[in-house]
Every structure is written in C-alpha cells, then in structure tokens.
Amino acid sequence: MNLAHTLLEQAQIRPHAPAIIDTYRGRSRTTTFVELDLAAARVARLLVNNGLQPGDAVLVFHPMSAELYVALLALFRLRLVAMFLDPSAGREHIERCCVMHPPRALIAGTKAHLLRLVVRALRRIPVKFAIGMPIPFAVRWSAADQLEPLQEVRECEADTPALLTFTSGSTGQPKGAMRTHGLLAAQYRALGASLALTAGDVDLATLPIVALANLGSGVTSLIPNADLRFPGAVAAAPIFAQIHAHQATSSIASPAFFECLFRHGETSALTLPSLRKLYTGGAPVFPRLLDQMQILAPNAKVVALYGSTEAEPIAHVSRREVTADDLKAMLGGRGLLAGAPVAEIRLCILRDQWGRPVGPYNAATFAEACCEPGDPGEIVVHGDHVLPGYLRGVGDEETKFRVDGGVWHRTGDAGYLDEEGRLWLLGRCVARIHDARGDLYPFAAETAVYQDPRVRRVALVAHRGKRVLAVEFYEGDDHANLDTVRAALAWAHIDEVRPCQRIPVDKRHNAKIDYPSLYRLLEQAGR
Question: Among 29, 57, 178, 246, whose Cα sits 20 to 30 Å from the Cα of 382?
Fold first, then answer.
C-alpha cells in the first residue's frame, strides 16, 4: 500500500474540482485535484533526476500552500520520508534533529534557505531545492514544470516510513515521531469519521495533517491568508473575506485562532453563516470558547477535539452535548469534559504512575491496574492510528508499554471516565500538587476559573510552598475584586490569587500555558 494511492483517487473521481485554494502573490489561486496530481508527478521526476532513493529523508521548510502538498504527494509516491521540524525552536533543535535522522534533501522557500547561513546542519544536506526565487547551490523548484511526469507510484508496506516530525525537545533530547504509510492511512480514516469529511465541502484548513485528509476525501482546502505560525495573532479580516468569498463550510483550528475570529466578529458585528462544522483542539477547549464559536458561526455544529501528536484524534464532544450538570461539575472541580473516545481507539485510565515504567501486562493484570469509573489516573490509548514508538526508541521507555504484546501509549495526561464512558481531563500528570492539604490537579481549578468571563488566561501552580493562582484578565476588566475568584475556588484551598499582565503561552498553538516562563515571572515578582 502507498498512501499516495488514497490521496490521488480524487484526481480520477473529481479531477476538475478545487483541491486547494491559497493566496499566491497577493491573489487567490485555485489548484484542482488533477492539476495537483500532474504537478506532483513532475516534481517526482525532478526528485528522481537529482538522485533521491526510496527511504531518503527530505526536510521540508514551507508554509501551507499548494506547493507544500505537491511536495508531500511527490515524496509519498516515491517512498521518500517527509521530514518536518519547527525552525522557531532554535538552531540547536534543528542541529539535534538533523543528527538524529540526517536528511538527504531540503525543500524550502527563499526565506527558509537563509537559515543555511546560520545552521551548519542545513548546509551539510547534499541536495537542495528552492521554491520561489533562485538560490545559490539549490535546484529551482520550477524546473519541474518542463519535465515529463513520472506516473509511477511505488508500492510499499504498511510499516514503510512516510512522515517524520519532532517534539520541541524543550526538556531534553527531541523525540522523533515516525508515521508510516499504514499509520497515516489509519489516521486519515479516524479523522475522516471524526470530522465528517464530505466530498464537495470547502474547509478552512489551518492544520497540515487535516488538509492531507481533505485531499483523500474530496474536500477543498481553503488555506487562510494569514501567518499560521502565530494563530493567536492572525489578522482576522482577510480570513473573514476568504470564508465569505469561497463559502467555506467547515474549519478545524486551534482555540487561539477561533478566539481571534470571534473578537473580530464581535467588534465588527459579523458572523460566518456559511460554516456548518467547526472543530477545535490542540490545546484545552473550555465551554466559554464553544459558546463564542457558536455565536461566530450560528449555523455550525461546534465540536471540541482531544488528541496528541502520538494519537489524533482521541475523543470529542459537541457543544450541544455539554449539559448544565456538566458545567456545574466543571465549576466544582471535576475537570474538563472531553467527551466520548472515538470508535477507532481503545482508552483506559491507568493508576497514576507517571515517571515510572509500567508493564508488560496481560489482559487480567492490565484490568487490575486500571481505575474504576470516576477515579482519576493516567490516560492511556491503543489503536491503529496511535504511534507505536519513537525514532530509535528515544522516549519509548517512559511513554510505551505492552498488553498481551500490543503497544499502548501513555499520554501523560490525567483524567477519568464517568459512568457514561465519557472522558474528563485533569491536566498533566506531572502537574499534580501534593501537599499537606492533599492532592490537587491544577487544571481542574483552571477549568472552573475559565467560566468567569473577565478571565483571559489562568494558571495554578505550587510556588514556594503555596498554591498560587495566576490570573490574566481581559483588558479593561477590574483586577481589584480577586476575592470573588478565590471564593469560587474554596474547594481548591488557594493561598494566593495573583493578577498578571500577561501569562506566557506556547509558540505553536498560542494557547497552552508556558509554565517554565510563568515560574520565572513569579520568581521575579517575588523578589
């Protein structure tokens, strides 16, 4: 099997339908499924002509665009490995990743090629391709336009490597997530079911893996005219214009992205009535955001997704499924409702032993090690679209275990299943506070506080022996009455509520709390 076969089927089924709509040189550009197929076949010829062989890794530095998916389709059909890493993680991160798995080729835009001036690992890559302006010592991407298409799609096994990404490595050595053709095909099926991908839909696509699934489903990917590296700071007006112009019917994006759209819609008195399906994930999704998304797109079904790099998707819940009792439970410290696990995955709650290897188990001993409904523990998952291991086994010991020979993944997230089989999230296992007053999952308190409309961000940490709640309010809100926040969390025994001008967040989604940076801010404020 080769994933390219699945992705290229639409070139026969609906050849002249739009596959990708993006912005090129300031104007909207449409690439049909058959045009995408032809361009990928020509690029495949270019790659072969420059000596690339099956199994070679090709590092890709290019934003979401038609060119990106032409490159991916060409790489898949030649049995090459598409390699991605986050250049914003820094020079050392790039060097480490390229040492772990040296790429044979580099595909990059003009600006990305400038990194070669400062990153030695990029200069060592033997073959380089430049998308856009000519670059010294790089093959021009446009040279493929004059080549005879290479129609061959090389056969491969389900375990043939296809796509390699890396964790940030902020806590040490990066971990490489190598997805095979079989795993990507399973993920495509799981995403297709969870996102209700329907041929003919127009999806505002902000996540590369979702646009890939769109290709196989006959869905048009409308790529936002925005810098998606910073989803919490996108200019919303051009995106609204794109959605209206192309009558987009769905979108999946990070919470920060939808917050930007909501704020623009609120201040401009605009809504997006063409949208019928909205999905958000990649960071905690609180009920308030689901309400805002419903206001933004009044005709849409609004859904929160839970998943991870190693297992996407895991669970989902729609706004309509969240009851008044659920909201009351969240306010009372029961955590964040993530919903029912997807049909394609097995999910269990293991007694929290994060930080220590577990297993192997047989079916009986594993059942004994798992929690009863309502009891918190560590979320573990198993399925065809769950990553069975990391590159060279780095990270496997702490995140993988076996049950009757099958590989399970430890998410590192705490949670529990309720009597209805729904998953509730309690944050990271490592964040649990254990002190004289007992155990507290900070995320449960944060979920409760997020129901306060004045609060933009919140984080609960143990700092200098105290339970400290850092709160960032929306601009213009009154910071003085912090007693109401503390009173709402009487059950959490908060020692101090500290207002912050800005709580730092992660670079990728602009939504997850950057706890190391927050600790530094608290230390500075305490001096």
Answer: 57
